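Sample entry (114 residues):
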Amino acid sequence: MNRIGDATKVLDRLRSKGFSPDTVTYDIMIGTLCSRWKLDLAMKVFRSVVNRSLLTYTILIEATMLEGGVDEALKLLDEMLSRGLKPDMFTYNTVIRGMCKEGMVDRAFGIERL
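Predicted structure, serialized as tokens:
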């Protein structure tokens, strides 16, 4: 229904009452924001999440790549790796597709070394 502001208020209300939304809740929120081209707001929600999942990172990496931010997406990938999360097939596909789309085919070949 495109009521992102209301969804954000619900999350804020839950947190203020001592409830802690799980990663699935945040993944849905972040994915919805990204699908509506609200990457800045998605990143704000992402930065407020302590326990970030592989899916959370992959959603944001894909959204960042779609906006042409290969270097920013690779920073997210590095952050993900530094937190001990290992990329899966979907993460690799997202990164490689984004790099190839931006004409970075040679650079994409180096991704296999992660």
